[in-house]
Amino acid sequence: MQRYTWQNIGSLSSRSFICGYCGNPLASEKGWYATFVVDNKIHRLIYICHHCEKATFFDEKGIQTPGVTFGNTVSDIPEKDVELLYEEARKCTASGCFTAAVLCCRKLLMHIAVSKKAKTGASFVEYVEYLVSNHYVPPDSKDWVDHIRKKGNEANHEICIMSSDDAKELLSFMEMILKFLYEFPSRIRKKQNLSTTNP
User: Structural domain boundaries of the chain?
Assistant: First the structure.
């Protein structure tokens, strides 16, 4: 069994990273380090975020825990299930669970369609067609929706593992769709309401 000796909190070599908790970029030099008893070299590090004051762990390969969540939050999503599913997909990428993230994106398309009055119990293809035919996706983005469908089918029905790139590109598209459907319309409504109340 490997044995490590942890040192008290102190100054470390400065490391730049994005905090997996609060999402802020930082360069920290405060934390703990662990030396391996055999060679007395530093193998593991824990840095403290000076924004949220939470601890981030780096192993001997430089792998960060918790990892960085891909994508950005989207505001003003009225359907809680849609918001939670999108955030779940993002959290999957931070944990390195890229197949799960792709499956979440597939399911997210179905939830979005239902939130826009598609009938429940339809097939995934029907939900995709509903979003496209009712103009809930931007013009010329049908290929992207088909790409999510294909990747989702691969992850769901075939013996294959999705990559980081697969998950990230699908999440990028889902973020754009959610902003297009929810955040941007809400933003302009708020602006119009503000101009009405403050002529």
Answer: 4-65, 80-187
Predicted TM-score (pTM) of the model is 0.76
Residues 42 and 35: beta-carbon distance below 8 Å: yes
**71 neighbors 42 (Cβ within 8 angstroms):** no
- Asked if 79 and 115 touch (Cβ cutoff 8 Å), the reply is yes
80-187 folds as Four Helix Bundle (Hemerythrin (Met), subunit A) (1.20.120)
| DSSP H helical ranges for the chain | 80-94, 98-115, 124-133, 142-157, 164-178, 184-197
User: What tokens were used for 168?
Assistant: 């990230």
pLDDT (tens place) for every residue of the chain, 199 residues total: 567 677 776 778 888 999 998 889 999 888 888 887 667 777 788 998 989 999 999 988 888 999 889 999 999 999 999 999 999 999 999 888 999 998 899 899 999 999 999 999 998 889 988 998 998 988 777 777 777 777 766 766 666 788 889 899 889 989 999 999 999 988 888 888 776 666 5
